[in-house]
């Protein structure tokens, strides 16, 4: 009889707190979004599963000694996983569209305004009781506006590890929601004529330019903003491997096997941060709201900048492509293409939007470096 | 608390200003350097094009040449045939 009582005491049912049940439900919710709605499934699936695992009572996945504890410790606490992902993203990115039309970098820069504007919002939320964001917390939240998962995770792991779970979930959810969040903003800020603008075809870019480009970015990074070089450097390494043409095997590994392996563990580690005590707070709601605002402001600033450039260039630039300045590669560029096609069914903006899109990746890495340098130090 | 909030807000404003300027300066320098690079390697730019573009016309032109030869041969043969038949 005593044996039965001991066994009962060790079951999940006897040990559940209601918060853990809610978090397991959140985990299943993420799994549902990943599988049925195909919202960034590569990440939300392991994140959701990690959230379920970490909230299992008694098993202690995220306590010292548990497997998720080590995965988090090794991969995210050290910042290694997001950087490896960034290398893979670099190996997958073709900068040709940007090199052919370098002015697009301005759009990638303008869209980062969402990040810095959200800093205000996060600090202002402190007025409401229950919120207590430091400047470091606010910076980590604001980077959601950069619409770049690995950058957000990297910065959050440096500046606000306690908020990492909520920040990562917000970042990836909003990236999945790009096709819903962006079009209304894009349409509100442009008129039909502007959306119809057809852009000149881009010139072809030589291999030599593509090889020099990552080296050039790295050089400026190390001279001006060394804090950004972990992100920018790994990105450039991946891109150089892709473009130089002599290490195709490494490039393929970085953009396939390696990034896949790291994605599994990154997702699990982020999921392990979705524990009841860290996630079930008002601050999480604040983070989700601020993330959406950051995203909206970033999109709006990108479009407005593109409008300005369109005016200055005498109507050669379609202002829609500004929306791709928030990174979210390649989803944002596809959205631009789709909205453009709605106004003019023969106007394919995809290649033109890839320029600001990859510029946005660089822009948010630079913004992350600035926040690290000014807030983290 | 109020004081503290306003000082943090001021700091955030500062960050906004510095952050956006640095982002623009950084990417602005990059624009300049890309243009410089494109200029330096301007002669090299059409390289992938040169491989493709002359190839296609050359295929076409040899095709056209062949066509001309065939046409010439046929018309010569027709001419010969007609000449032969007349006589």
UniProtKB/TrEMBL annotation, chain A:
Keywords: Cell membrane, Ion transport, Membrane, Sodium, Sodium transport, Translocase, Transmembrane, Transmembrane helix, Transport. GO terms for biological process: sodium ion transport. It is a multi-pass membrane protein. Signal peptide: none annotated. It comes from the Bacteria. The chain crosses the membrane at residues 16-35, 42-61, 67-92, 104-128, 134-156, 163-181, 211-237, 258-279, 285-305, 317-336, 356-375. GO terms for molecular function: decarboxylation-driven active transmembrane transporter activity; lyase activity. Belongs to the GcdB/MmdB/OadB family. Catalyzes the decarboxylation of oxaloacetate coupled to Na(+) translocation. This is Oxaloacetate decarboxylase beta chain. It comes from Catenovulum agarivorans DS-2.
UniProtKB/TrEMBL annotation, chain B:
This is Probable oxaloacetate decarboxylase gamma chain. One of its GO terms (biological process) is sodium ion export across plasma membrane. Belongs to the OadG family. InterPro entries: Na_pump_deCOase, OadG. It comes from Catenovulum agarivorans DS-2. It is found in: Cell membrane. The lineage of its organism: Bacteria, Pseudomonadati, Pseudomonadota, Gammaproteobacteria, Alteromonadales. The chain crosses the membrane at residues 12-34. Its main location: membrane. It is an enzyme of class 7 (translocase). GO terms for cellular component: plasma membrane. Catalyzes the decarboxylation of oxaloacetate coupled to Na(+) translocation.
